[in-house]
Amino acid sequence: MSAVVLIPSLNPDRHLAxxxxxCLEEGLRDIVVVDDGxxxxxxxxxxxxxxxxxxxxxxxxxxxxxxxxxxGIRTALERFPxxxxxxxxxxxxxxxxxDIRRVAQALSGADHPFxxxxxxxxxxxxxxxxxxxxxxxxxxxxxxxxxDCPDTQTGLRGLxxxxxxxxxxxxxxxxxxxxxxxxxxxxxRYPMEMIPIQTVYEDNNRGxxxxxxxxxxxxxxxxxxxxxxxxxxxxxxxxxxxxxSLRLGVMASTILARCASGxxxxxxxxxxxxQVRRRKRSQFWKYLxxxxxxxxxxxxxxxxLQILPLPxxxxxxxxxxxxxxxxxxxxxxxxxxxxxxxTS
Length: 344
Description:
Blueprint: E1 4-9, H1 15-25, E2 31-36, H2 43-52, E3 55-59, H3 65-79, E4 85-88, H4 97-107, E5 114-118, H5 128-145, E6 157-160, H6 164-168, H7 176-187, E7 192-196, H8 212-219, H9 221-244, H10 250-273, H11 281-304, H12 312-335
Parallel strand pairs: 1-2, 1-4, 2-3, 5-7
Antiparallel strand pairs: 4-6, 5-6
Helix pairs in contact: 1-2, 1-4, 7-8, 9-10, 9-12, 10-11, 11-12
């Protein structure tokens, strides 16, 4: 059996029926639409999709895109038990039926890869908020996983059945779920395929339900938490460095201040920032080695830059900003990286 098309939808317009009809014309007969609490005023639109042949699952209240995707996967498994996977697509017209079909075909490959439909963000019609948001997400994904993905926020994805149990167990109920999904698939080292799709934005993407501040905070919660824990440690480090440097040299002050903040920062990153499920003693020793290296680099570079006409504390702060990015990359990829579980 072929893949099932899964369309999560909130307060849809005429595009929803057009997407369903287009999928049918492309030979995609098995379609699940999830009404994510749109309310009675949108019932007619979902009834039209159902009349076309789509299976409609409903949330009584809005629960978020992540919750809708999970509901859609469960519904697809129940209604189409022989499916090979699902193709997630948006119902606002951004994903063209022919591209949905191409993702479904790629999903049916020999190794049933996790498929990403990749848009071209260099085109003029792409809203600047979408362009910048995707660039930021792509940067952090590359920093934390090493994956170079030019479109991390695409909703057109092929999810193989082999990953269903893993994806259903992932945290996240709203837009952050798609980022968690991508990060987890990379951690599992599961085969991935990226295919180019057409870039469609109508009316400057006004139909999107993405809340810039709230949903961005959810998507970037891991680097934001890392930044917060680092700021806590950095604040303590800078305070103690400033006090110690009144009587001691740069290197001694750096060592003492870093010792005071290092263990607190380690525990914050392990428990809060990266939320490591499998906590191992080796993580501490790896962190300690990194901590010593960064401390020596920080002290050495600050010492070398004393010739600059800047306050010593400011010089140290500038050096540590650069080390902040390096630290995140090393900790996420080599210290607090989760070991892949079974994907079946």
